[in-house]
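Budget justification aside, the reviewers requested a transparent look at the raw inputs and outputs of the sequence design task funded under Objective 1. We therefore reproduce one unedited record. The lines immediately below are the structure tokens for a 138-residue chain.
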């Protein structure tokens, strides 16, 4: 019964975070909810990284991704497009290279969503040769 209550609580919290971001873009409230989740699932991490990547402070999305890695939460193929968007929006070429290393580590370099994120990030950073290389590999 305790496990069922934990699952129910996580479902409610996940829905609240999603609603906070969908309805009003209230990142402050969503981050407060997130801070109270002992072991967030990948969907919750992705939801917040995506929201932060498109916020006025995309570097916060990168910091959240770093926290995700520190807490040993496994990023998935849906995580990297959001992280790459945060890289592009923060205009950090170094960031894109670091994330590429993670993409390769997880074997997601052939995923079309991840590849599109890499192309966008490289293009924004004016690394057209890198963008072309990813495009040609698709």
């Amino acid at each position: 019964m305790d496990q069922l209550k934990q699952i129910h609580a996580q479902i409610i919290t996940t829905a609240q975070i999603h609603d906070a971001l969908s309805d009003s873009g209230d990142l402050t409230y969503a981050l407060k909810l997130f801070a109270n989740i002992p072991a967030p699932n990948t969907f919750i991490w992705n939801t917040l990284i995506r929201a932060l990547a498109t916020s006025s402070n995309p570097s916060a999305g990168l910091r959240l991704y770093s926290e995700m890695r520190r807490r040993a939460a496994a990023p998935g193929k849906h995580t990297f497009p959001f992280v790459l968007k945060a890289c592009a929006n923060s205009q950090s070429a170094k960031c894109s290279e670091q994330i590429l290393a993670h993409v390769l580590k997880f074997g997601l370099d052939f995923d079309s969503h991840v590849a599109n994120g890499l192309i966008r990030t490289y293009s924004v950073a004016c690394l057209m040769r890198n963008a072309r290389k990813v495009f040609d590999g698709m």
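The chain has one domain: 2-136. The mean pLDDT is 84. Computational costs for records of this kind are itemized in the attached budget.
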